[in-house]
Write a structure and sequence with these properties.
By secondary structure, the chain is mostly beta strands. It has two domains: 59 residues, Roll (Membrane-bound Lytic Murein Transglycosylase D, Chain A); 104 residues, Immunoglobulin-like, CATH 2.60.40. It has three helices and twelve strands. Strands 3-5-6-10-9 form a five-stranded antiparallel β-sheet, with no helix packed on it. Strands 4-12-11-7-8 form a five-stranded antiparallel β-sheet, with no helix packed on it. A two-stranded antiparallel ribbon has the order 1-2. Strand 7 and strand 8 form a beta hairpin. It starts with a helix and ends with a strand.
């Protein structure tokens, strides 16, 4: 039996589909690396790795592998309500030097102590960050907070919750009011 008969031919890895946040598929050429492909598309290698989870070992690419190239993220977007809220309630996130969360939500009534703080969470695959929202206006009731040292990425879920205490609860908080999709 020849060594050729014992060798395995590795077929290119092709995703069943790319997530909706992926703009295009890229076919790997000889000499490509995650770093070179990410640089070519103005991405961090981590972003490319996270959007191409069908490649188990990012250090090993073969010509013909297909990667999912993520879209560039919007600078500002509205979050979707998950609860019935007062008519003029809304939440917006901006991607400026971190993630800025802005929401038009009711003020807390002093006699109602069920919930007493709003939090914005950025929930990633392996970690999360949060910020307590501060009220900057009462009419309308505007709340704002900034999560530093993080950028809005397709794999990060943004949630605005109302919590029972002044400290952040485990994500996604006690009662989710808005979330990214």
């Amino acid at each position: 039996m020849s060594s050729r008969d014992n060798s395995k031919i590795i077929e290119p890895r092709i995703p069943q589909g790319c997530y909706t946040h992926s703009a295009m598929k890229y076919t790997v050429k000889k000499g490509d690396t995650f770093y070179s492909i990410a640089t070519e598309h103005k991405l961090e290698p981590r972003e490319l790795i996270l959007s191409s989870t069908h490649i188990q070992n990012p250090s090993y690419l073969i010509p013909g592998d297909v990667l999912c190239i993520p879209k560039q993220v919007k600078l500002c977007t509205f979050l979707h309500p998950t609860q019935k809220l007062p008519k003029k309630s809304y939440a917006v996130i901006a991607n400026l030097n971190g993630i800025t969360c802005i929401a038009n939500l009711p003020s807390f009534k002093k006699d109602r102590k069920i919930y007493n703080s709003y939090y914005c969470y950025a929930i990633g695959l392996n970690n999360h960050k949060s910020v307590k929202l501060s009220q900057i206006s009462t009419n309308p009731s505007i709340w704002i907070g900034e999560i530093k040292d993080i950028a809005l990425q397709p794999h990060i879920r943004i949630v605005i919750s109302v919590n029972k205490g002044d400290e952040p609860s485990n994500p996604p908080g006690d009662l989710v009011l808005f979330e990214s999709r």
